[in-house]
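ok so for the tutorial part 2 we go from a plain amino acid sequence to predicted structure tokens. step 1 is just haveing the sequence, like this:
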Amino acid sequence: MIAKGEKKEEYRDLSRYWAIRLLPEHKREQVLHDWNPAPTRNLVAFHQPKKPWQYALFVNGYGSTSPAVLVEFFQLAATNVTKPEWGGQPGKPCFAIHLDSVLNYSNLDPELEYEVYNNKRKQTT
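step 2 — the prediction. this is what the tokens look like for a chain of 125 residues:
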């Protein structure tokens, strides 16, 4: 779904593990404190990432032939408003990595690669 450009958010647990990887040090404890326990109302809080990201690389596995997609990074948010069709659990706090356009891909299934290629061609014409 990311490769096709349909899925525009990727979710990660709102945990210390992901806070270390996604947030600058001075923001980690504040974000984890604000979200524990989870707010009872719907909430979205946008944050500056740890580094000024431009891209996100998603790789499905560890081998050299694993499918990979390079996507433009849009923004990072802590939220409990997610889309179940994109893998979110409604009401569960998480980091939402908002994505923009697909820049490159490799090792995709041939049918999916054909579909992605055609979608990219349509976007450029």
